[in-house]
Design brief:
This protein has about 325 residues and is of the alpha/beta class. It is built from 16 helices and eight strands.
Length: about 325
């Protein structure tokens, strides 16, 4: 395959050099390099949305469209896509650990309590402190005064601990009437959660947090994809000194998460799985992503100046485009 082609190696080195800041001595400081990666804006805030079965419940789709039209700081994903990936890759850990994993990647978790399943999610998610403080449940206002288990248990916990509370009781027949209130609470420039760079859960010499590493992986794939998991890990090792076994295993998990979030897709060819960017529309509407995507496209143009000479690469690119 083309991964051993001299022109691909040239593109690889070009990408690593760009991600490390090239010869710019001003980028020796980790903070300056992170700003070079993401621009002056903070990385976008990730809003996971939990809702009922889309075959019967359309409110989540209406909310997603509303946020894309009216928010500049949020990227929305459906929580079950990430959840299914976490269960698949981490099947040997318990539900509490899975909740903590979801909390690590999200800034806000919006739950539309409109089905038995979402009522169960509210109960499960509110039980764990790391995720409870990021919850914003939206419930049916018809049941606001009920002395139910939900109202006396999870709702009270969220109202007490969530940074986005209290819970919202809305008219589910006209769900968008609650959205100004939702955006007032969640759509601001910077997240409410500070991630210490001393945290043991950071990555490489830039001490990237979980969310930053997710967007870095997406950028790598967008710049030089279609590429394999092994190439992505090699870029992370060379560009960011992500070398520990545990760190590289987490890169693998993040690749799968990007697929689950439908930003990245994959295709098998000759016993190898290749990853490529599938849908950047969900990111392009976001103000915080503009700098990163602009830089990503600039780097990709430079990489393509090498890759264009590889017939096999071009043929495969046409297949997945």
């Amino acid at each position: 395959m083309w991964l051993k082609h001299p022109k691909f190696q040239s593109a690889f080195e070009e990408l690593v050099s760009e991600l490390r800041g090239g010869d710019d001595t001003k980028l020796a400081d980790p903070k300056a390099r992170r700003q070079n990666l993401f621009g002056k804006e903070s990385p976008p805030k990730i809003l996971f949305i939990c809702g009922g079965d889309p075959r019967f419940c359309e409110n989540r789709l209406h909310i997603e469209k509303y946020i894309k039209r009216h928010s500049e700081n949020l990227v929305t994903f459906r929580a079950e896509y990430a959840w299914e990936t976490m269960v698949e890759l981490k099947s040997n850990i318990n539900a509490l650990a899975l909740e903590e994993s979801l909390a690590e990647f999200s800034d806000i978790v919006l739950i539309l309590v409109e089905s038995f399943g979402t009522a169960a999610e509210l109960g499960a998610f509110s039980a764990g402190e790391p995720l409870r403080e990021k919850l914003l449940p939206v419930l049916d206002k018809r049941f606001k005064s009920d002395e139910s288990f939900i109202n006396t248990g999870p709702v009270r916990w969220v109202n007490r601990d969530s940074r986005y509370g209290p819970c919202i009781f809305a008219n589910f027949d006209s769900i968008l009437t609650c959205m100004p209130d939702v955006l007032d609470r969640v759509d601001y420039k910077r997240p409410k959660f500070y991630t210490s760079r001393k945290d043991k859960n950071t990555y490489g010499d830039l001490k990237l947090n979980h969310k930053e590493l997710l967007f870095v992986v997406i950028q790598i794939i967008n710049c030089i994809g279609p590429i394999t998991e092994d190439v992505i890990q090699k870029v992370c090792r060379r560009a960011f000194k992500i070398t520990r076994k545990q760190e590289l295993a987490h890169v693998r998990f993040i690749i799968s998460l990007a697929v689950a979030l439908e930003v990245v897709d994959k295709k098998r060819k000759e016993e190898e799985v290749y990853y490529f960017c599938k849908n950047l529309k969900n990111l392009k509407n976001n103000k915080a992503m503009k700098g990163l995507l602009h830089r990503s496209q600039r780097i990709r143009s430079r990489c393509l100046s090498h890759l264009v000479y590889i017939d096999e690469y071009n043929k495969f690119l046409e297949e997945v485009s």
